Structure formats: structure tokens, C-alpha cells
Amino acid sequence: MDLKLEVLFVPVSDVDRAKAFYESLGFRVDIDYIASEDFRVAQLTPPGSEASIMIGKSITGAAPGSLQNQLFAVTDVLATRADLAEKGVDVSEVFHYADGFIFHLDNQYRVAGPHPERADYQSFASFSDPDGNSWLLQEINVRAPGR
């Protein structure tokens, strides 16, 4: 059985603002369908991804900004971070975790800079969309076995 992640619903308060933000990051607009004043759906695909995000009006009951810590795999976290910053995105400095690959919401284990050995899955940067939905960049060049 194959189960491929196809679409992730991203709750936003202003579809046009969110669409412009994601387009500025290089996302491709696959669909922008407006059925009425109360229903709109826009599907956007990140560069190099097979999965997409969906934003819209009346497509999810989740509160705008409630999607947290979703990952984008990147091959060079420093270069991707610099590219996002150049595009005007408020992106964190690159960091890694002191005790290895562990997520801590309070950030107390974050250490500045990429992982000292640039080990896969260990270096991150973070940013949010205009509603506060948060994203992590995670550097991966060689995937773990089975991935």
C-alpha cells in the first residue's frame, strides 16, 4: 500500500495575503477557485515538492495560525535561510539542538549555528507565515534508511 501525503491544509485569515506570501517563496499556484464570497480554495506547491498546501475560506475549522512546526526538507539550510531572508521573510538564524534531534517548544536546548558536522536531520531554521503558522527548514542530504 502506498500512502503519499498530497495536501496539507494551512488555516489562514486572509487568503490573498497568504497566497501572496507563499507565492513570494516560489510556491506554484495549482488552483485558485472562488465559488462564492464564502468559499474559496487555493492549492500551492513548494518548489521541488510533490505535496502541496491548501489555503482558503470555509475549508477547515482550524484557527488561523494554529499549524505549528511543519518541516520543509532542504539540502542547504544556510543557503535556503539566506534566500528566504533576501525575499523579506523573518526567518530565524540557523540552529541545532544540544542533545541531538529533539524538538523542544521552549527552545531551551537550541544552539546557534548549524550542527557542527552538518549531520543530516540536525540543522534547522524557522519562520512563520503572516497568520503565525510556523515552518521549520531541516537540512537533509542523505535520508535515513527506509526513507
Automatic annotation (TrEMBL):
Any Pfam family: Glyoxalase
Q: Which InterPro entries match?
A: Glyas_Bleomycin-R_OHBP_Dase, Glyas_Fos-R_dOase_dom, VOC_core
Read off the SUPFAM superfamilies from this record: Glyoxalase/Bleomycin resistance protein/Dihydroxybiphenyl dioxygenase (SSF54593)
Residues in domain VOC?
Answer: 4-140
Source taxon at top rank: Bacteria
Q: What is this protein called?
A: VOC family protein
Lineage of the organism: Bacteria, Bacillati, Actinomycetota, Actinomycetes, Micrococcales
